[in-house]
Amino acid sequence: MARASGAFFMATLVIWAISISWEILINKRTDLVPIVLGFIFYQSANWVIRISHPNPNPLFINTCVSLLHSSTTSTSLVFLLTNQLIKVNINQMLEHSQLVDHTWPYAYTSLCFSCGYFAYDQLDMLIHRLYNEFIPSILVHHLLLLVCFTLALYRNVTINYLILTLICEIHSVFLHMRKVRRMAGFRDSTSVVVKVEWVFNWTSFVLARVVTHVFITVKLIRDASKFDKGGVELPLALFGMAGMNLLNAFLGIDLFKAYRREMNPPRTHQNHRD
Protein backbone atom coordinates (compact mmCIF):
# COMPACT_ATOMS: atom_id res chain seq x y z
CA MET A 1 0.00 0.00 0.00
CA ALA A 2 2.73 2.47 1.04
CA ARG A 3 4.90 1.73 -2.02
CA ALA A 4 1.88 2.03 -4.30
CA SER A 5 1.12 5.43 -2.79
CA GLY A 6 4.67 6.67 -3.40
CA ALA A 7 4.65 5.29 -6.95
CA PHE A 8 1.37 7.07 -7.70
CA PHE A 9 2.62 10.47 -6.57
CA MET A 10 5.95 9.99 -8.35
CA ALA A 11 4.08 9.13 -11.55
CA THR A 12 1.90 12.26 -11.28
CA LEU A 13 5.04 14.36 -10.74
CA VAL A 14 6.69 12.87 -13.83
CA ILE A 15 3.57 13.57 -15.90
CA TRP A 16 3.55 17.14 -14.57
CA ALA A 17 7.23 17.59 -15.52
CA ILE A 18 6.61 16.26 -19.04
CA SER A 19 3.66 18.63 -19.43
CA ILE A 20 5.72 21.65 -18.31
CA SER A 21 8.60 20.67 -20.60
CA TRP A 22 6.22 20.28 -23.54
CA GLU A 23 4.70 23.73 -22.98
CA ILE A 24 8.10 25.42 -22.70
CA LEU A 25 10.01 23.59 -25.44
CA ILE A 26 7.32 22.74 -27.98
CA ASN A 27 4.70 25.46 -27.45
CA LYS A 28 7.38 28.11 -26.73
CA ARG A 29 5.79 29.18 -23.42
CA THR A 30 8.80 31.11 -22.15
CA ASP A 31 6.59 32.74 -19.51
CA LEU A 32 6.64 29.37 -17.72
CA VAL A 33 10.45 29.27 -17.42
CA PRO A 34 10.32 30.70 -13.83
CA ILE A 35 8.78 27.36 -12.78
CA VAL A 36 12.01 25.62 -13.80
CA LEU A 37 14.10 28.37 -12.23
CA GLY A 38 12.16 27.99 -8.98
CA PHE A 39 12.79 24.25 -8.97
CA ILE A 40 16.51 24.77 -9.64
CA PHE A 41 16.79 27.50 -6.99
CA TYR A 42 15.31 25.42 -4.16
CA GLN A 43 17.08 22.23 -5.25
CA SER A 44 20.36 24.18 -5.22
CA ALA A 45 19.58 25.44 -1.71
CA ASN A 46 19.04 21.82 -0.69
CA TRP A 47 22.45 20.83 -2.08
CA VAL A 48 24.23 23.75 -0.41
CA ILE A 49 22.77 22.89 3.02
CA ARG A 50 23.51 19.20 2.48
CA ILE A 51 27.15 19.86 1.60
CA SER A 52 27.72 22.33 4.44
CA HIS A 53 26.12 20.14 7.10
CA PRO A 54 28.43 17.51 8.67
CA ASN A 55 25.68 14.93 9.24
CA PRO A 56 22.91 15.77 6.76
CA ASN A 57 19.45 14.90 8.02
CA PRO A 58 17.03 14.85 5.05
CA LEU A 59 14.14 16.13 7.20
CA PHE A 60 16.23 18.98 8.65
CA ILE A 61 17.44 20.00 5.18
CA ASN A 62 13.93 19.81 3.74
CA THR A 63 12.57 21.96 6.58
CA CYS A 64 15.33 24.57 6.10
CA VAL A 65 14.50 24.86 2.40
CA SER A 66 10.79 25.09 3.25
CA LEU A 67 11.62 27.93 5.63
CA LEU A 68 13.53 29.63 2.81
CA HIS A 69 10.51 29.28 0.50
CA SER A 70 7.97 30.58 3.00
CA SER A 71 10.23 33.53 3.88
CA THR A 72 10.92 34.37 0.23
CA THR A 73 7.28 34.01 -0.79
CA SER A 74 5.97 36.03 2.17
CA THR A 75 8.40 38.86 1.41
CA SER A 76 7.48 38.91 -2.28
CA LEU A 77 3.75 38.85 -1.45
CA VAL A 78 4.03 41.79 0.95
CA PHE A 79 5.85 43.74 -1.77
CA LEU A 80 3.38 42.66 -4.48
CA LEU A 81 0.22 43.43 -2.50
CA THR A 82 1.56 46.71 -1.09
CA ASN A 83 2.55 47.80 -4.58
CA GLN A 84 -1.00 47.10 -5.79
CA LEU A 85 -2.69 48.81 -2.82
CA ILE A 86 -0.75 51.97 -3.59
CA LYS A 87 -2.44 52.07 -7.00
CA VAL A 88 -6.01 51.07 -6.09
CA ASN A 89 -8.11 50.65 -2.95
CA ILE A 90 -8.77 47.22 -1.50
CA ASN A 91 -12.35 47.02 -2.85
CA GLN A 92 -11.13 47.53 -6.40
CA MET A 93 -8.31 45.11 -5.79
CA LEU A 94 -10.74 42.35 -4.74
CA GLU A 95 -13.22 42.82 -7.57
CA HIS A 96 -14.12 39.59 -9.36
CA SER A 97 -12.70 40.71 -12.70
CA GLN A 98 -9.43 41.74 -11.06
CA LEU A 99 -9.02 38.40 -9.33
CA VAL A 100 -10.00 36.24 -12.31
CA ASP A 101 -9.15 38.02 -15.56
CA HIS A 102 -6.30 40.35 -14.61
CA THR A 103 -2.84 39.72 -13.23
CA TRP A 104 -1.10 42.06 -10.80
CA PRO A 105 2.51 43.02 -11.59
CA TYR A 106 4.95 40.24 -10.62
CA ALA A 107 2.07 37.92 -9.63
CA TYR A 108 2.53 35.51 -12.54
CA THR A 109 6.27 35.15 -11.97
CA SER A 110 5.79 34.75 -8.22
CA LEU A 111 3.22 31.98 -8.75
CA CYS A 112 5.55 30.23 -11.22
CA PHE A 113 8.43 30.33 -8.74
CA SER A 114 6.28 28.83 -5.98
CA CYS A 115 5.03 26.17 -8.39
CA GLY A 116 8.68 25.20 -8.95
CA TYR A 117 9.18 24.93 -5.19
CA PHE A 118 6.20 22.60 -4.70
CA ALA A 119 7.53 20.35 -7.47
CA TYR A 120 10.98 20.31 -5.80
CA ASP A 121 9.47 19.60 -2.36
CA GLN A 122 7.27 16.81 -3.71
CA LEU A 123 10.31 15.16 -5.29
CA ASP A 124 12.48 15.59 -2.19
CA MET A 125 9.86 14.08 0.10
CA LEU A 126 9.28 11.15 -2.26
CA ILE A 127 13.01 10.40 -2.58
CA HIS A 128 13.67 10.55 1.17
CA ARG A 129 10.22 9.25 2.27
CA LEU A 130 9.50 12.34 4.34
CA TYR A 131 5.77 11.69 4.56
CA ASN A 132 3.25 9.51 6.33
CA GLU A 133 3.12 6.46 4.07
CA PHE A 134 -0.43 5.52 5.10
CA ILE A 135 -1.96 9.02 5.07
CA PRO A 136 0.30 11.11 2.79
CA SER A 137 -1.61 14.37 3.34
CA ILE A 138 1.41 16.52 2.49
CA LEU A 139 1.76 14.80 -0.90
CA VAL A 140 -1.95 15.30 -1.56
CA HIS A 141 -1.56 18.97 -0.61
CA HIS A 142 1.34 19.46 -3.03
CA LEU A 143 -0.40 17.58 -5.85
CA LEU A 144 -3.50 19.72 -5.35
CA LEU A 145 -1.44 22.90 -5.53
CA LEU A 146 0.52 21.77 -8.58
CA VAL A 147 -2.68 20.94 -10.48
CA CYS A 148 -4.43 24.21 -9.58
CA PHE A 149 -1.37 26.40 -10.09
CA THR A 150 -0.32 24.81 -13.37
CA LEU A 151 -3.77 24.92 -14.98
CA ALA A 152 -4.14 28.57 -13.96
CA LEU A 153 -0.69 29.42 -15.35
CA TYR A 154 -1.44 27.60 -18.63
CA ARG A 155 -4.65 29.58 -19.14
CA ASN A 156 -3.47 32.76 -17.37
CA VAL A 157 -6.65 33.03 -15.29
CA THR A 158 -7.35 33.32 -11.52
CA ILE A 159 -3.67 34.18 -10.95
CA ASN A 160 -4.54 36.82 -8.36
CA TYR A 161 -6.88 34.43 -6.54
CA LEU A 162 -4.01 31.95 -6.20
CA ILE A 163 -1.66 34.68 -5.02
CA LEU A 164 -4.10 35.35 -2.17
CA THR A 165 -4.02 31.68 -1.20
CA LEU A 166 -0.23 31.99 -0.76
CA ILE A 167 -0.70 34.48 2.09
CA CYS A 168 -0.73 31.35 4.26
CA GLU A 169 3.04 31.18 3.72
CA ILE A 170 3.34 33.90 6.37
CA HIS A 171 2.18 31.30 8.88
CA SER A 172 4.46 28.70 7.32
CA VAL A 173 7.45 30.88 8.28
CA PHE A 174 6.72 30.36 11.98
CA LEU A 175 5.68 26.74 11.45
CA HIS A 176 9.01 25.85 9.85
CA MET A 177 10.94 28.10 12.22
CA ARG A 178 9.60 26.12 15.18
CA LYS A 179 10.50 22.83 13.53
CA VAL A 180 14.06 23.96 12.75
CA ARG A 181 14.45 25.28 16.31
CA ARG A 182 13.40 21.98 17.86
CA MET A 183 15.55 19.93 15.49
CA ALA A 184 18.49 22.15 16.43
CA GLY A 185 17.93 21.13 20.06
CA PHE A 186 16.40 24.31 21.48
CA ARG A 187 13.25 23.11 23.28
CA ASP A 188 13.06 25.20 26.45
CA SER A 189 9.31 25.88 26.77
CA THR A 190 9.96 28.46 29.52
CA SER A 191 12.02 30.62 27.16
CA VAL A 192 10.56 34.00 26.19
CA VAL A 193 11.65 33.32 22.61
CA VAL A 194 9.58 30.14 22.45
CA LYS A 195 6.52 31.80 23.97
CA VAL A 196 6.71 34.76 21.57
CA GLU A 197 7.18 32.33 18.69
CA TRP A 198 3.95 30.56 19.66
CA VAL A 199 2.08 33.88 19.77
CA PHE A 200 3.16 34.61 16.20
CA ASN A 201 2.47 31.00 15.21
CA TRP A 202 -1.15 31.05 16.44
CA THR A 203 -1.85 34.61 15.26
CA SER A 204 -0.55 33.95 11.74
CA PHE A 205 -2.34 30.57 11.63
CA VAL A 206 -5.71 32.23 12.31
CA LEU A 207 -5.24 35.35 10.18
CA ALA A 208 -2.98 34.27 7.31
CA ARG A 209 -4.30 30.75 6.90
CA VAL A 210 -7.79 30.17 8.33
CA VAL A 211 -9.35 33.62 7.80
CA THR A 212 -7.73 34.10 4.40
CA HIS A 213 -8.81 30.74 3.02
CA VAL A 214 -12.32 31.00 4.44
CA PHE A 215 -12.61 34.50 2.92
CA ILE A 216 -11.53 33.19 -0.49
CA THR A 217 -14.01 30.31 -0.27
CA VAL A 218 -16.89 32.63 0.68
CA LYS A 219 -16.00 35.06 -2.12
CA LEU A 220 -15.90 32.24 -4.67
CA ILE A 221 -19.40 31.16 -3.61
CA ARG A 222 -20.77 34.72 -3.63
CA ASP A 223 -19.28 35.43 -7.06
CA ALA A 224 -20.25 32.04 -8.53
CA SER A 225 -22.68 33.62 -11.01
CA LYS A 226 -19.90 35.85 -12.38
CA PHE A 227 -17.80 32.91 -13.57
CA ASP A 228 -18.20 31.67 -17.14
CA LYS A 229 -20.92 29.02 -17.28
CA GLY A 230 -19.54 25.62 -18.18
CA GLY A 231 -15.98 26.70 -17.32
CA VAL A 232 -13.64 24.70 -15.10
CA GLU A 233 -12.39 27.68 -13.09
CA LEU A 234 -15.13 27.74 -10.44
CA PRO A 235 -15.42 23.94 -9.81
CA LEU A 236 -11.64 23.62 -9.67
CA ALA A 237 -11.31 26.63 -7.35
CA LEU A 238 -14.04 25.39 -4.99
CA PHE A 239 -12.57 21.89 -4.95
CA GLY A 240 -9.12 23.29 -4.25
CA MET A 241 -10.31 25.53 -1.43
CA ALA A 242 -12.35 22.72 0.11
CA GLY A 243 -9.16 20.67 0.22
CA MET A 244 -7.17 23.58 1.65
CA ASN A 245 -9.74 24.25 4.39
CA LEU A 246 -9.85 20.57 5.32
CA LEU A 247 -6.06 20.43 5.54
CA ASN A 248 -6.11 23.63 7.64
CA ALA A 249 -8.45 21.90 10.10
CA PHE A 250 -6.08 18.95 10.44
CA LEU A 251 -3.12 21.32 10.75
CA GLY A 252 -4.91 23.24 13.52
CA ILE A 253 -5.48 20.00 15.44
CA ASP A 254 -1.81 18.99 15.04
CA LEU A 255 -0.69 22.48 16.04
CA PHE A 256 -2.82 22.39 19.19
CA LYS A 257 -1.40 18.99 20.16
CA ALA A 258 2.15 20.27 19.57
CA TYR A 259 1.43 23.37 21.69
CA ARG A 260 0.13 21.28 24.58
CA ARG A 261 3.13 18.97 24.42
CA GLU A 262 5.62 21.82 24.33
CA MET A 263 3.98 23.93 27.01
CA ASN A 264 3.36 20.93 29.30
CA PRO A 265 6.45 18.75 29.01
CA PRO A 266 6.49 15.51 31.07
CA ARG A 267 8.01 16.04 34.49
CA THR A 268 10.37 13.67 36.19
CA HIS A 269 9.12 12.79 39.63
CA GLN A 270 11.76 12.09 42.24
CA ASN A 271 11.21 10.58 45.67
CA HIS A 272 13.00 12.50 48.41
CA ARG A 273 13.75 10.67 51.62
CA ASP A 274 14.42 12.48 54.86
Q: What is the terminal-to-terminal distance?
A: 58 Å
Strand content: under 5%
The percent of residues in helical segments reads over 70%
Number of strands: 0
N-to-C SSE string, H for helix and E for strand: HHHHHHHHHHH
Secondary structural class:
mainly alpha
Rg, alpha carbons: 20 Å
Shape: globular
Q: Which descriptors would you attach to this protein?
A:
76% helix, disordered C terminus, mainly alpha, membrane, 274 residues
Overview of the structural elements:
This protein has 274 residues and is mainly alpha-helical. Helices cover 76% and strands 0% of the residues. It contains eleven helices and no strands. Helix 1 (2-25) packs parallel to helix 7 (137-155) and helix 6 runs antiparallel to helix 7 (137-155). The termini are far apart. It is a multi-pass membrane protein. It is found in: Membrane. Residues 55-264 form the TLC domain.
Short description, anyone?
With 274 residues, the chain is mostly helical.
Q: Secondary-structure map with pairings?
A:
Blueprint: H1 2-25, H2 33-52, H3 58-87, H4 90-93, H5 96-100, H6 107-128, H7 137-155, H8 159-165, H9 169-183, H10 192-222, H11 233-263
Helix pairs in contact: 1-6, 1-7, 2-3, 2-6, 3-6, 3-9, 6-7, 6-8, 7-11, 9-10, 10-11
